[in-house]
Amino acid sequence: MPDSFIPMKMPNFHSRGRRAISPIVATVLIVAVTLVASVAIAGFVFGIFASQGNTAQVSVTATALKAADFLAAGQSTGFTCGSAA
Questions:
Q1: Long-range pairs, 4-9, Cβ under 8 A, ≥24
Q2: 51-72 residue pLDDT tens
């Protein structure tokens, strides 16, 4: 080694009193956050959190049909329509 080389001492992080969380706790936390996020995203995508509002309902009571509307391959087609009683 050259004489000008002075090895630097790395700081000791354990001497500060800090402790890291264990890998098992970290894994459980990651899985829990992932599950909560996936349920929230699925709820918005599939609409389970959406409130059911009033939907419009349409009904046809009467209509006039022309024979010209029912041409199939150059031939006229007949339809029998009954009235609701």
A1: none
A2: 666 667 777 777 776 655 555 5
- Which CA distances in Å does 26 have to 10, 33, 37, 64, 73? 27, 11, 17, 70, 71
Report the Cα–Cα distance between both ends of the chain, in Å, rounded.
Answer: 108
Q: What is the mean pLDDT of residues 31-43?
A: 93
Residue 76 contacts by C-beta under 8 Å, 6 or more apart in sequence? 67, 70
Q: Can you give the length of the chain in residues?
A: 85
Written as six digits, the tokens of 6 are 């002075």
